[in-house]
Design goal:
The structure holds two protein chains of two kinds. Chain A is of the alpha+beta class. Chain A has two domains: 1-28; 32-130, Glutaredoxin (3-Layer(aba) Sandwich), CATH 3.40.30. Helices cover 39% and strands 18% of the residues of chain A. A five-stranded mixed β-sheet of chain A has the order 2-1-3-4-5, sandwiched between helices. In chain A, β3 (83-86) and β4 (93-95) form a beta hairpin. In chain A, α3 crosses α4 (100-111). The model of chain A has no long low-confidence stretch (mean pLDDT 88). The longest helix of chain B is centred in the last third of the chain and has 18 residues, at 458-475. In chain B, 38% of the residues lie in helices and 15% in strands. Chain B is an alpha/beta fold. In chain B, α6 (151-161) crosses α9, α16 runs antiparallel to α17 (458-475) and α17 (458-475) packs antiparallel against α18 (481-497). In chain B, strands 13-12-16-14-15 form a five-stranded mixed β-sheet. Chain B has a four-stranded mixed β-sheet with strand order 2-1-3-4, covered by helices on one side. A four-stranded parallel β-sheet of chain B has the order 10-9-8-11, sandwiched between helices. Classes of the chains: A alpha+beta, B alpha/beta. The interface between A and B is large, with 51 and 74 residues. β6 of chain A pairs parallel with β7 (115-116) of chain B. The structure holds flavin mononucleotide and iron/sulfur cluster. The site of iron/sulfur cluster (SF4) has 14 residues of chain B, from α17 and α19.
Chain lengths: 130, 596
């Protein structure tokens, strides 16, 4: 797909934003859980790949509608692997030191029941949109 | 099943835990139980909020009230007043010294956040292997708008933004573009310096791994501004994941027509190739980097001519660092004024640091220029590990200097750091505590320089070798007082006479520790003592017979069998066998072993 003009680029941006919104919220207004796993060198070295496959399998096994994607370094190298979980209609929450055990707890308590779990990493930076 | 209506977040970061946050969590739980609220309110321990100076931090959700310096004694009041009666506790709110007002998080959601993410804006947000996610977050919009301007207009914006090079030197980026743009040539090049040789630094790797398109987009913008059709990324082969993500990103950009011919119908052609480095520190120096890309030995040459006049294959070449490029799209998307509003007069924007060493929260941080070292180390970094005492911080890696307690309140920017004897460098920041010997630290950096010196010029090749020998002499207990002066004289000669930046800055760790820790050098030389207990030749381990319980733990752990003694009787160390590994010292549970 070639983008030929700036207008094209803007159109595509709107389309992708729509697509992402749909992915995050789903057709039946808000049922999809979104999980991002920090997969830079630091995360992978601490086991982020295993964490990611575990989460994919576990959510699949339990029939939870979710999108699990990889992303770059969130900066919390001391707490790798880190993941960000966004429940429908809620602010994203970042968890640190997510091994299998922690991942299972996050699924059991946060994703299934909406209860926060120990080990949240508060967002400690401002973004360019603020 | 419990149906929680509220959550109480208690910071369990190491900084706050030192001030009893564990106990606060426990007390909250008992207090809630007493009021029969444990089914409605859940207590959760979190990681660091990055505001440790005011810890322990307690945050109430959903109303987002943010309490600072909350102690165990405050728990009862928080539960009875806030949780039960819904009245925030005024005395625990943060008191903003600037506005003299109390802030709840609800009013100023960000007041406690010291970091600002510009270069790292997409790292940890988007999937770096999917160009659509980059486009959704304004990706390539800057390129689009630049292509509708005149190259000189866009260059002027970069100039006006005040952006300076993040690779170490801090040269104004817009000015560099302008100089290269003025050169007349049939071909010019844009080079991205992703060599990142500073030990402990990984900012550039993280950007390429987390947001490769931001660098690609910026290189294309630079190409348009200076009149170059070709870009090259010079990256060390030791960064396989970054290389892989960059390759994927380049292919996607080509597929979308954002690289290649006639980009966005503007008639501008631009494409990017990758060149691999073998991981030599000197190849990060721009002239050495260019020679390495040309297939020659990675050795620097005298400047001038600068690469902007005669660079890759003798053509005008603009070299910028990865992080410098990552800032570019934001300048166009958010505007020059917005960018200038962050940072200080002479150093606009932010700087990414790889915070490492003896701090609690080791990681990648991005802070506005002008923040103090104290805020970085004690708020964002969560203070010194194990509650030890801060001793020094090294910025600028092997080219930088060691700063001390007295510099903690210096606002970080290019000029201030140079004024206090260090430099910004590419962004390595290593924190040291009371256990670190500053003479050994200087020796460590010099060892690195010795390994990495290309050997082309004499002051650096031989001078650093001699400098290192003197340090070895001092740390092994054979130094004399004149050696200290010799270090200073030789160091200054190397600085003044070396050919490239590597040699010109290599004595900095020695010179700055001499300035700031002169007494420590004297102790090594005159008293033959290492105050930090790190120099093996100057210390030995002894067992205090009164404190030793004869538990045999040291005996069992000593790798060379230097410890002997009966069970339940004091042990002793045979100094002629001891290799001073320190295992006994670490293992002893009764503090019976001392370093003398
Ligand atoms: C010994 C030495 C090593 C260097 N290593 C790097 C490096 O790893 N990355 C980098 O961007 N610049 C490095 N530089 C600085 C480059 O020579 C050059 O100034 C820089 O890439 C220019 O980009 P900037 O203006 O965007 O900072 C090094 C300089 C010296 C003297
Ligand atoms: S200063 Fe050192 S690294 Fe630079 S050219 Fe001379 S020998 Fe090579």
């Amino acid at each position: 797909m070639k983008i030929k003009t700036l207008a094209d680029l803007k159109k595509i941006k709107a389309e992708v934003q729509e697509k992402i919104k749909l992915r995050e919220q789903g057709e039946n207004a808000g049922n999809i859980v979104q999980v991002k796993v920090a997969m830079a060198t630091c995360g992978i070295a601490s086991g982020a790949k295993e964490t990611m496959s575990f989460i994919i399998e576990e959510l699949d096994f339990r029939g939870i509608d979710a999108v699990v994607t990889q992303t770059g370094c969130m900066g919390y190298c001391y707490a790798e692997p880190t993941i960000e979980v966004t429940l429908p209609g809620k602010d994203p929450v970042v968890y640190g030191y997510v091994d299998r055990e922690k991942a299972r707890q996050i699924i059991d308590e946060y994703i299934v029941k909406g209860e926060l779990v120990d080990g949240i990493i508060p967002v400690n930076y401002k973004t360019i949109d603020e | 099943m419990a149906d929680y209506k509220m959550h109480i977040l208690v910071c369990g970061g190491t900084g706050c835990r030192a001030s009893q946050s564990d106990k606060i969590v426990e007390t909250f739980k008992t207090e809630l139980e007493m009021h029969g609220l444990d089914d409605e309110v859940k207590v959760v321990a979190t990681g660091c909020f990055g505001f440790c100076e005011k810890g322990p931090i307690v945050k109430i959700i959903p109303d987002n009230t943010f309490y600072v310096q909350a102690g165990v004694v405050d728990v009862k009041d928080i539960v009875e007043e806030h949780i039960i009666k819904g009245r925030p506790l005024k005395r625990l709110l943060y008191h903003d010294p600037a506005t003299k007002s109390q802030v709840t998080d609800t009013a100023h959601i960000d007041f406690y956040k010291k970091q600002v993410r510009i270069a790292l804006r997409n790292c940890g947000f988007i999937n770096p292997e999917n160009i659509e996610e980059y486009i959704a977050r304004d990706g390539y919009a800057a390129l689009g708008s630049v292509l509708e301007m005149k190259p000189s207009e866009a260059t002027q914006m970069v100039k006006d933004s005040g952006l300076r090079g993040r690779g170490g030197g801090g040269f104004p980026t817009g000015l560099k573009w302008e100089i290269t743009a003025k050169e007349k040539s049939d071909q010019k090049y844009v080079v991205c310096n992703a060599d990142e040789g500073d030990p402990g630094a990984f900012m550039d790797r993280s950007i390429l791994e987390g947001d490769p398109h931001s660098v690609i987009e910026a290189m294309a913008i630079c190409g348009y501004c200076i009149g170059a059709g070709k870009g090259l990324v010079y990256i060390r082969a030791e960064y396989p994941l970054a290389i892989n993500r960059l390759k994927i990103a380049l292919n996607q950009a080509r597929e979308f027509g954002l690289l290649g011919n006639d980009i966005l119908g503007s008639g501008f052609d631009f494409d990017i190739d990758i060149r691999y480095g073998a991981g030599a520190f000197v190849c990060g120096e721009e002239t050495a980097l260019i020679h390495s890309m040309e297939g020659y030995r990675g050795e620097p040459t005298v400047k001038p001519p600068f690469p902007s006049v005669s660079g890759y294959l003798g053509k005008p070449t603009n070299v910028n660092n990865v992080e410098t490029f990552a800032n570019i799209p934001v300048i166009f998307n958010k505007g020059v004024e917005w960018f200038k509003s962050i940072g200080t007069e002479n150093s606009r924007g932010t700087k990414v640091f790889a915070l490492a060493g003896k701090v609690n929260n080791v990681g990648l941080i991005e802070v506005p220029m002008g923040i103090t070292l104290r805020e970085v180390i004690f708020d964002i970094g969560g203070g010194i590990r194990g509650g030890k005492k801060f001793k020094a911080v090294q910025t600028g890696g092997p080219s930088g200097g060691c700063l001390t307690e007295q510099h903690l309140d210096t606002p970080i920017d290019y000029d201030n750091l140079i004024a206090v004897g260090s430099m910004m460098g590419s962004g390595g920041m290593i924190v040291m505590d009371e256990d670190d010997c500053m003479v050994s630290i200087a020796k460590f950096y010099l060892e690195f320089t010795l390994d990495e010196s290309c050997g082309k010029c004499t002051p650096c090749r031989i001078g650093n070798k001699r400098l290192h020998e003197i340090l070895v002499k001092i740390t092994s207990g054979n130094g004399i007082e004149e050696d200290i002066e010799r270090l200073r004289v030789l160091g200054n000669v190397i600085k003044e006479t070396s050919l490239c930046g590597l040699g010109q800055t290599s004595p900095n760790p020695v010179l700055s520790t001499l300035d700031n820790f002169y007494d420590e050098y004297l102790a090594h030389v005159n008293d033959k003592k290492c105050p930090a207990g790190q120099c093996k030749d100057l210390v030995h381990y002894e067992i205090n017979a009164n404190a030793c319980t004869g538990c045999t733990l040291c005996f069992r752990n000593c790798p060379v069998g230097a410890i002997s003694g009966e069970k339940k009787m004091p042990h002793y160390i045979d100094q002629s066998l001891c290799i001073k590994c320190g295992v006994c010292f670490e293992k002893c549970r009764f503090k019976a072993i001392s370093i003398v």
